[in-house]
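Records of this kind hold a single protein each, on a pair of labelled lines. Below, a sample record shows both lines together.
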Amino acid sequence: MTRRLTACGVQFDCKLGEAPGNAEFMANEVVSAAGDAGARLVVFPEAALTGYVFESEAEALAAAVEADGPEIGRIGAACREAAAWAVVGAVERDGGRVYNSAFLVGPEGLVGCYRKVHTLCLGVDRFAARGAGFTVWQLPIGRIGLNICYDGTFPESSRTLKLLGAQLVVLPTNWPRLNMKRAQTTMRAYENHVNYLAVNRVGEERGTVFPGGSMAVDPLGRIIAEGGDGPERIVAEFDMEGADANRVVLSPGAYEFDYRADRRPETYRPIVDQTPTSTPTGSFGSGSAEAAGPAT
């Protein structure tokens, strides 16, 4: 398994409802990023394959892609050519429902699919069925866990991935505002002693502006790469094994801490015992309330 991983986040303005064209662009980016920057992992924004701001569940269903469809196949072929992996955000269609998903694709094709757990009242999240869990994939390049956009607002999301063994948390996102996102992203990395890569899109879609600002953060909460507000790639080198060195020693015997070993799970029951007392803001489309397990 790789000790150090070169990863690339691609900020771009995808085209709403034009999955074949978006897939072609993304496939070319995988090959180019591998060749130009030596990237073994290439990450695209949330819903970048399909677009995000759909106005109805029917419209989203019509534009959605399937896990075994030609778009993912095209990106898989590029991963095979580049000997790289890609994280591809997309609106997924499965069984007559839509999901806000992130496909993990590698040289052998589709590795797995994560479906967004936390949805809100924005874009396709209004209609998407919610995912039901988190997964960490062990790859030759390291142990990778996925969240999507709003998931990052909930500390439990990345903490779960850390406890499942993640060395790198990847967050494809469509942040329409960057308020507090720098603080949020650095804290998710720092509080879990994990590498973190958040990749936002740019451009405008049906009046919603996406300002970029992608960032890569190391386990000490230091930003090691950051994007601007236009189309670009950010490239970061992550110390994957460093994320496993959970005991931080600032002064031997005098100042040491371990965010895994020092936890007190028995005191956290209210986090899981208390159910929401008001109506969730997302996932109010037809049949979207019933959770579905993550596709793997």
